[in-house]
Amino acid sequence: MQETIPKQNVVLxxxxxxxxxxxxxxxNNISFDIIKxxxxxxxxxxxxxxxxxxxxxCGLLPPTNGSVKFIGFPDQDxxxxxxxCPQENIFYPKLTCLEQLLFIGQMYxxxxxxxxxxxxxxxxxxxxxxxxxxxxxxxxxxxxxxxNICLALVHDPEILIxxxxxxGLDPQSRILVRDFIKTISKRKxxxxxxxxxxxxxxxxxxxxxxxxxxxxxxxxxxNLKKTVGEGDILEIYFEAHNETAINQFIHKVTLLSMNVKKxxxxxxxxxxxxxxxxxxxxxxxxxxGLTISEIKLRENTLEDVFIHLTGRSLRx
Length: 316
Ligand code: ATP
Fold this sequence. Notes:
Elements: E1 10-21, E2 24-35, E3 39-43, H1 50-57, E4 65-70, H2 78-81, E5 82-85, H3 97-107, H4 112-125, H5 141-153, E6 159-163, H6 171-184, E7 189-194, H7 197-203, E8 206-211, E9 214-219, H8 221-227, E10 232-238, H9 243-255, E11 259-262, E12 266-271, H10 278-287, E13 292-299, H11 302-310
Parallel strand pairs: 3-7, 3-8, 5-6, 6-7
Antiparallel strand pairs: 1-2, 1-4, 8-9, 10-12, 10-13, 11-12
Bound molecules: adenosine-5'-triphosphate.
């Protein structure tokens, strides 16, 4: 399932991690290695076990079984190695952005002058420099999220863990946070959780797909998309639902060795160079009595990978 990684590059080893809540297995025997300076995405739908996995890595939740080992930091307290930005924003409402960065940094025993420089740099990178002296409670939702990311980094950890970093962000803040994550990944190792495949696809060097607590696949986004076959996807929507005609159409398309999926009132066809087959596919549908209302052509996405693996969408 996982490619061989040179030992010296592994910074974190997760082995047979399990969390049992009475009859529910929230995390079921998950193992993976995290490589220095990679952006590692944990992708899965609501309730898949992402936060539970992260909480066990951070030491906030004891595992029922298995282990989390940091490699190459023999003298460091694991707590100082990790910067954690949880799903819910946590801050002191009546401290300014700068004050709370300094406060948290000092709790890690870092010198004040260094903390001041780092805090200003972080606030600037996350577009909050002009809010440096504003109370956290007076920030917008997106700004609070960005402040929380600064707070996770103020003690200069080796590994930054972000639980749903883009949740609740407007498109502008999302771009800012994505750029920030890319920039900071040159210096840090990053683990992020998401149920947004676009976020995982654009950001992560490797993606672990988890569902019902199990690790289904771990690969680069490019290779994940290859696992369900390269090529584009043609979505054909019909004006009226004619079950018999749609089934006959699907049968004919399948005979051309194309991968066809039936949706409620449309079909998705995946194939290499699908565009070359567009007119013959259209003829097949129309000669079979179907009226096409819309045709869409799109690239294979991680959502398609997830549907292929689990038979359902990430949003279901
Ligand atoms: P989301 O994307 O919604 O945040 P997730 O992938 O992070 O989901 P988890 O929060 O890890 O999912 O939850 C995994 C499962 O464990 C869910 O079914 C959840 O209800 C359950 N769970 C989480 N915490 C507890 C708890 N303290 N007691 C019992 N069950 C729990």
